[in-house]
Specification:
Radius of gyration: 16 Å
Oligomer: single chain
Helix content: 55-70%
Order of helices and strands: HH
Number of strands: 0
Number of helices: 2
Structural class: mainly alpha
Length: 59
């Protein structure tokens, strides 16, 4: 079985963290709510992936 191409999430998360910190340092409002949205989206994606049906013969 071939794995799907998986984006480099580590780099994206590093950018997310650094840009969020920078915007906070510059006094931007709303960073916290965006980070909360990202967290919820990631949790939802994990839940949805774990709910996908599997082939019991391969499990």
């Amino acid at each position: 079985m071939e794995y799907p191409q998986i984006p480099n999430y580590h780099v994206l998360i590093d950018y997310l963290i650094e840009y969020a910190k920078l915007r906070c340092e510059y006094g931007a409002q709303g960073v916290e709510s965006i980070l909360k949205e990202v967290e919820e989206s990631l949790k939802n994606a994990i839940f949805r992936i774990n709910e996908l049906p599997i082939d019991e013969r391969l499990a």
